[in-house]
Amino acid sequence: MFVAAFGACRHVPAEGGGAAVLDRGHHLQLYLQLWKVQVSGMFAAIGRPMSAEDMHLRRTEPDANLHRFYRMEIVRGLFDDWSLVREWGRIGSSGQVRTDWFDTEADAKDARFEVHMAKAKRGYE
């Protein structure tokens, strides 16, 4: 994904007819957009093992045909910021994804705890 996107970066001719150089402003902006896309939903799709920062909750009520999941992961950003990535939906589907950004890891963990408590009240285990 990153390789194909970086190939689309603009090249600017160097002064004096030298070799072309990469327009770094455009490159950084594209990289940050791709980073947020990757963090915002691809962590489940790439199949990597759950870390200590992952939390996977389920709520199953077969009589009501209710089979749901709620996954949370704390991810460090590029510039020492932290995100809480949440994915939820019906078990077996890709679900929806939301990313909330925080200044510190402690703030992200506090937010994860609050969401976990709210989900526990609704029957998620």
Order of helices and strands: HEEHEEEEH
CATH first level of the largest domain: Mainly Beta
Number of strands: 6
Distinct helical segment count: 3
How many whole angstroms does the radius of gyration measure? 20 Å
Explain what this protein looks like in three dimensions:
The chain has 125 residues and is α+β, with helices and mostly antiparallel strands. The chain has two domains: 1-39, no CATH class; 48-125, WGR domain (q64v53_bacfr protein fold, Single Sheet), CATH 2.20.140.10. It contains three helices and six strands; from the N terminus they run αββαββββα. It has helices at residues 2-6, 24-39, 105-121, and strands spanning 11-12, 21-22, 54-61, 66-76, 82-90, 96-102. It has a four-stranded antiparallel sheet, with helices on one face. Strands 1-2 form a two-stranded antiparallel sheet. A hairpin with a 5-residue loop joins strand 5 (82-90) and strand 6 (96-102). The longest helix is centred in the C-terminal third of the chain and has 17 residues, at 105-121.
Brief account:
The protein is α+β, with helices and mostly antiparallel strands.
Please write out the topology.
Blueprint: H1 2-6, E1 11-12, E2 21-22, H2 24-39, E3 54-61, E4 66-76, E5 82-90, E6 96-102, H3 105-121
Antiparallel strand pairs: 1-2, 3-4, 4-5, 5-6
